[in-house]
């Protein structure tokens, strides 16, 4: 018996090695995805800069507006210093002031140089001052406005995506066991409803639950004035979160279930899964060892990127 038995250390070592390999693959896959996501965001922002400026045409419009504004200001100036100038001297003064204003705004540099400056400013959220919007603190800096709205946005998107992720994966795993059943066909039939955007469902949710039944608020983040008690504040925040989060979840719920169900079905039809069935393994053992385990890096990475 001693020759056939395996030491405990030799039994544990392969498991530890397998877990470390899985963690390494997940970390590598996540790092690659994050780098690719960052590069995609940079390229997208730069293309937005090029498109918004129309290749430099907007700068020409700005130069014309600057020249027109300075020209009108000088010719309407009734001060003795300006009125005593000849037309040529006024034109020279206009040219000098236009050059100073273009230098101040950076319009005297080539567009390709300024486009990369705009890219860096956009990545740093240095987007200048807003004209029509202000932050709750009264600031017109676009950076302050964005940073002030960022925590509520992360709370809304994070909570809704977490609920959507776990609910869709759980239901998709159940449907993958019941391929072709009535509920499976129902989910497939409802998947096109995810083509409608979240605001479409949000309008109906507001009409039904806020306007008709009056059980949920129309908008806002918390009640006004905000409760001082942390428990009451959390309840108020949760109450205001239900409608927008529900609209986000419903808009992507069925298509997410359909995608994960298809994902699990692809892995369940592999040859090694069929071999496990012939060996007599139960459905849960097959799902755990041969379906969930191979797809675990993808699942963890998508969860991490939420």
- Strand percentage lies at under 5%
Q: How many runs of DSSP E, i.e. beta strands? A: 0
Q: Write the H/E string, N to C.
A: HHHHHHHHHHH
Low-confidence regions: 1-6
The helix tally amounts to: 11
Protein described:
With 306 residues, this protein is mostly helical. The chain has eleven helices and no strands. Helix 1 (8-53) crosses helix 11.
Outline:
The protein has 306 residues and is mainly α. Helices cover 75% and strands 0% of the residues. The model is unreliable at 1-6 (pLDDT under 50).
Give the helix/strand layout:
Blueprint: H1 8-53, H2 57-75, H3 80-83, H4 87-105, H5 111-123, H6 142-177, H7 182-190, H8 198-212, H9 230-268, H10 271-278, H11 283-304
Helix pairs in contact: 1-5, 1-11, 2-4, 6-9, 8-9, 10-11
């Amino acid at each position: 018996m001693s020759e056939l038995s395996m030491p405990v250390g030799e039994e544990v070592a392969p498991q530890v090695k397998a877990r470390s390999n899985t963690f390494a693959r997940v970390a590598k896959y996540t790092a690659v995805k994050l780098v690719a996501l960052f590069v995609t965001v940079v390229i997208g922002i730069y293309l937005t800069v090029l498109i918004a400026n129309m290749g430099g045409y907007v700068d020409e419009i700005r130069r014309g507006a600057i020249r027109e504004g300075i020209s009108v200001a000088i010719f309407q100036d009734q001060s003795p210093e300006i009125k005593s100038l000849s037309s040529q001297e006024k034109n020279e003064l206009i040219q000098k002031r236009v050059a100073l204003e273009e230098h101040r705004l950076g319009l005297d540099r080539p567009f390709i140089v300024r486009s990369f400056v705009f890219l860096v400013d956009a990545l740093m959220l240095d987007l200048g001052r807003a004209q029509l919007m202000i932050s709750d603190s009264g600031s017109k800096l676009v950076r302050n406005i964005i940073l002030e709205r960022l925590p509520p946005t992360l709370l809304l998107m994070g909570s809704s995506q977490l609920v959507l992720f776990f609910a869709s994966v759980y239901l998709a795993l159940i449907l993958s066991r019941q391929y072709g059943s009535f509920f499976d066909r129902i989910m497939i039939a409802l998947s096109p409803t995810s083509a409608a955007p979240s605001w479409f469902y949000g309008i109906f949710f507001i009409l039904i639950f806020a306007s008709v039944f009056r059980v949920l608020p129309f908008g806002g983040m918390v009640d006004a004035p905000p409760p001082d008690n942390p428990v009451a504040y959390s309840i108020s925040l949760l109450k205001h979160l239900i409608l927008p989060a529900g609209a986000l979840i419903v808009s992507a719920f069925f298509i997410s279930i359909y995608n994960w169900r298809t994902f699990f079905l692809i892995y369940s039809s592999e040859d090694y899964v069929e071999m496990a069935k012939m060996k007599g393994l139960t459905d849960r053992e097959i799902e755990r060892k041969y379906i969930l385990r191979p797809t675990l890096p993808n699942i963890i990475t998508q969860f991490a990127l939420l």
